[in-house]
Amino acid sequence: MSRLNEYQVVGRRSPTEKEPVPKLFRMRLFAPNEVVAKSRFWYFLKQVNKVKKASGEIVSVNQIFEKKPLAVKNFGIWIRYNSRSGTHN
User: Fold this and answer.
1) Is the dihedral of CA 4, 36, 43, 38 positive or negative?
2) Mean pLDDT, 10 residues at a time, over the chain (89 residues)?
3) CA gap 74, 55 in Å, rounded
């Protein structure tokens, strides 16, 4: 059984002469390890903000630990599935 950890990944587009201080993007992701968290970060950032791994950089990756592990929490889940008429989010 794999255990998922929560990670905060912060990344941005690589600095250029045109944009020396690019906008930072932060995501909180669930992944089994840090490498998968970075991979999922680039996957979602590519879909939403048109920033690829080749033209960007990771600023920081932090594991988030629960403050109250016995408290009940609610999470939203993003479901993606294929049907006969196409892909739905």
Assistant:
1) positive
2) 86 94 95 96 92 94 91 85 87
3) 35
Q: Which of 2, 9, 61 is nearest to 32 (CA)?
A: 2
pLDDT for res 66: 86
Q: Give the bridge partners for 63, in sequence order.
A: 7
Signed CA dihedral, 49, 54, 55, 59: sign only: positive
Considering only CA atoms, give the Rg of the chain: 16
Full 3-state SS string of 26-84? EEEEEECCHHHHHHHHHHHHHHHHCCCHHHEEEEEEEEECCCCCCCCCCCCCCCCEEEC
